[in-house]
Amino acid sequence: MASRLNPYIQFQNEARAAMEFYQGVFGGEVSSNTFKEFGSGHGPEDDELLMHSQLETPSGFTLMAADTPQGMSYNPGENISISLSGDGDELRDYYAKLSEGGKVTVPLEKQMWGDEFGMVTDKFGINWMVNIAG
């Protein structure tokens, strides 16, 4: 799998509606998983919220989104990240380089869905998510 770079937008209880809207705009297929499906979240009020949603369009666009679970801050204007995903070692290098002078918010390590995942805010304040297929 080639590496890809795409936007990842964080919502507050509106990810499902937003992704349905974007699907109406761009076409394509949406796949989604709730916090409950992954046994995650911060309480029963998060169960039906989207932990991850992905729209793949006929034009080759990829848009990812999620809801913000209870206990995590939601700051409109700061609610977008850039996602890097794939299966190559180059992604580990990107994560390491993006971390230099920045702040690691989630260490790059194996997650409950089987992939390695980490998050970092680079030295310019840009949020990055790195997912390496397991």
UniProtKB/TrEMBL annotation:
This is VOC family protein. It comes from Kribbella karoonensis. InterPro entries: Glyas_Bleomycin-R_OHBP_Dase, Glyas_Fos-R_dOase_dom, PhnB-like. Gene3D superfamilies: 2,3-Dihydroxybiphenyl 1,2-Dioxygenase, domain 1 (3.10.180.10). Residues 5-130 form the Glyoxalase/fosfomycin resistance/dioxygenase domain. It holds the Pfam family Glyoxalase.
